[in-house]
Amino acid sequence: MEFPGISLTLLTHLDELIPERCPAPTDSSTEVMFYAGQRQTVRMLIERFKDENNIDPQDDWKQR
Q1: Global pTM?
Q2: Is the pLDDT of residue 9 over 80?
Q3: DSSP state of 22
Q4: Torsion of CA 35, 47, 13, 5, to 10 degrees
Q5: Burial profile 34-51: b = 16 or more Cβ within 10 angstroms, e = fewer
Q6: Using an 8 Å Cβ cutoff, are 45 and 14 in contact?
Q7: What would the pLDDT profile of 15-45 be if each residue is shown by its tens digit?
């Protein structure tokens, strides 16, 4: 199955909605794990976007 294209608009929205962050001391382990899963999905989509658009892995994908 081929992976569908990823729009810059959607990816930017997800990155803003689920940003990189450290867990708060008040977060439960369940909350930390749930957030980590969400963020890992965003990271995977960013890597797919870079691959699809021939962006060097070290470059900022937001500059597209």
Answers
A1: 0.88
A2: yes
A3: P
A4: -130
A5: eeeeebeebeebbeebbe
A6: yes
A7: 999 999 999 999 999 999 999 999 999 999 9
Quote the crossing angle between the two packed helices 8-17 and 29-52, to the nearest 10°: 160
Cβ contacts of 54 within 8 Å, gap of 6 or more: none
Cβ–Cβ under 8 Å, residues 15 and 42: yes
Q: What is the DSSP letter of 64?
A: -
Residue with tokens 């199955």: 1
Q: Where are the beta strands (DSSP E) in the chain?
A: none
Contact (CB, 8 A) for 46 and 15: yes
Q: How many helices (H) and strands (E) does the chain have?
A: 2, 0
